[in-house]
Amino acid sequence: MNLLILLCILCVTFTGLCEGAGVLVDDLLNATVGGKVLFTTNLTTQDPPVTIDTVIWNFYLRNIITFSSGSIRPGPGYENRTTLFMSTGSLELRNLSLKDSGEYTVNILTVETLAGNTKLMIYEPVSNVTITTSSTDLVEFISSVHLSCSSSGTSLSFLWLNGSSEVKASDRVQLTGHNLTIFNVTRYDEGTFRCRVVNPVSNSTSDPVFLSISFGPENTRLNLSPSEHYYEDGSNVSLTCSAVSRPPAHFQWIGLSVSGPELPLLNLNMNQTGNYSCKAFNNKTNRSQTSQPAFISVLQRISGASVNSTTNQAVEGNSVNLTCEAAGSVFSRQWKKDGSDLILTNNMTLNREESVLSFQSLKRTDSGKYSCIITNPINRDEAEYNMVVNYGPDGVQITGPREINVKDTLTLTCSAESTPSATYTWSLNTTEILSDSAEFTKPVTEFSDSGSYTCTATNNVTGRWSTAVHALSVTVKQPPRCNSGCIVGIIIGCCLILGLCAGGLYFVSRRRKQRNYLSHEDTRTGSTGGGHQNSQASSSNQDVTYTDINFLRKKDGGPVQLELENNSEYAEVKVKNRDPAESSTDAHVEQMNKAAP
């Protein structure tokens, strides 16, 4: 009977090995030393329950536990270590040791034969994870570091972390097992390093190790506050030096016995103009770097601008210099004339950084208001100079009559182009007669006033003089000659005489016609009364009045005047009456003046 059961078990056992996992749920189970493991079958509790006749668990060929004929029999060494669950055939194994690792099989006999196998791996849990390092204080580009991770446990895997990031191998980073090596560290390698150890049943992480990477100094810079191109004398400026460095750099100011990152410059003066730079030093890396220089230019405000001349009396033709000066820092000068930019002519030059305006030969047109504008980046100032170019006298001339009647008033005027105004001296035939007057006047002239009048114009500034000569003749007043006005008067008088003659002839002609008409009427009627009338008419026609017309010309040559003289007497007027048949009447008029006009 026992032999039959053993054969059946062997048969089922080998059958199960050939069939694989079969009735078991897990192909591989992991467990820790001292722990426990549950080998679970895929049989479930059913209603009605499955009737299990036989269960056999083996570790390799070593029996762990057997259930048969209603009794459970643990194998040697498994007493008090196993629990068999009869409803499913599952097995719990406790107090595990590394020796329990291996292949496990199960055979279950119900209405049919079920078998399965699985593998159990026993591990020691991870513990005591620590890091050892060659150094934690490193210098960039120079130092290399080696870190080693140690841990208790079995089947261990190692993972290196820098902060929360995994450290990966590269040309500078080498990972070999539990070791990490970084060659020629950089600042980016700095951080907190940890080692995480893992096996299938546990994991653990080491305490952090901080790697400090010293680097720099780099990007050493000098900053100015306030930042200006130019600083006014008496102002303040602060210089600050900075650099990228670990640990922080130490600073030294070049050329000054001052250390520290800041250099205050208070109440600046022009002696402090120059280049400033600082030097950064890292005592860990033993490196240093000097900043680019910063130029500080200290300027004085421009004040007291002035334009001065080499002479107080500028004279045409002479040379003169105008000098533009001012206290303070002068950057540029600009010249203007009469408010407009100065345009240099051929007699002007600018010298000594445009501070001196030179005139080689002054012209009178150079007169004007000259201004000099002095500037620097801080301020500007302006000065003016009014230059008057003295010249002359030029163009001296005398105005007045060339001929004058004796006893008339003589006035002569002398003029000249001159700055300042000229003084005048008069002389007659080289004898001085008047000084300090441009006008010479003599109320009553005499024959001795004839001659050459000389006017001498003198400029007391230029020291120059010039003369003009005027010839004068004093004469007796002559009767006025007939000028153009006289001729016009004569023509007008002749025209009047012709008009009067024509009027008289017309009047005589009409009277004659009237008389002839009356004589004709008397003859036709043959009355004596008519003859008397004709006699009366004839008598009436014989009443004629005569007058003289004289044309008078004024002594000063003025317009002609017409004068009628009624004191003329006429000797005789005879009229012969003729018959009407005769067409002419003879008259003889004789004029006799009683006295000469």
Regarding CATH, which class of the largest domain?
Mainly Beta
DSSP, total strands: 49
In the CATH hierarchy, the architecture of the largest domain is Sandwich
| CATH fold annotation of the largest domain | Immunoglobulin-like
Helix content: 10-25%
User: Sheet bearing the most strands, described?
Assistant: 8 strands, mixed
Per DSSP, the total helix count is: 3
Q: State the CATH superfamily name of the largest domain.
A: Immunoglobulins
How far apart are the termini?
Answer: 219 Å
Task: Give the integer mean of the pLDDT values.
Answer: 84
The gross shape turns out to be: elongated
Describe, in short, the structure shown.
12% of the residues lie in helices and 48% in strands. Strands 11, 13, 14, 17, 18, 19, 21 and 23 form an eight-stranded mixed β-sheet that branches. A six-stranded mixed β-sheet has the order 1-9-8-3-4-5. It has a five-stranded mixed β-sheet with strand order 39-45-44-41-42, with no helix packed on it.
Describe the structure.
- The chain has 597 residues and is mainly beta.
- The chain has 6 domains: 2-123, Sandwich (Immunoglobulin-like); 127-207, Sandwich (Immunoglobulin-like), CATH 2.60.40; 214-299, Sandwich (Immunoglobulin-like), CATH 2.60.40.10; 303-387, Immunoglobulins (Immunoglobulin-like), CATH 2.60.40; 391-475, Sandwich (Immunoglobulin-like), CATH 2.60.40; 547-597, no CATH class.
- Helix content is 12%, strand content 48%.
- The protein contains 3 helices and 49 strands.
- Strands 11, 13, 14, 17, 18, 19, 21 and 23 form an 8-stranded mixed sheet that branches. A 6-stranded mixed sheet has the order 1-9-8-3-4-5. A 5-stranded mixed sheet has the order 39-45-44-41-42, with no helix packed on it.
- The longest helix has 42 residues, at 484-525.
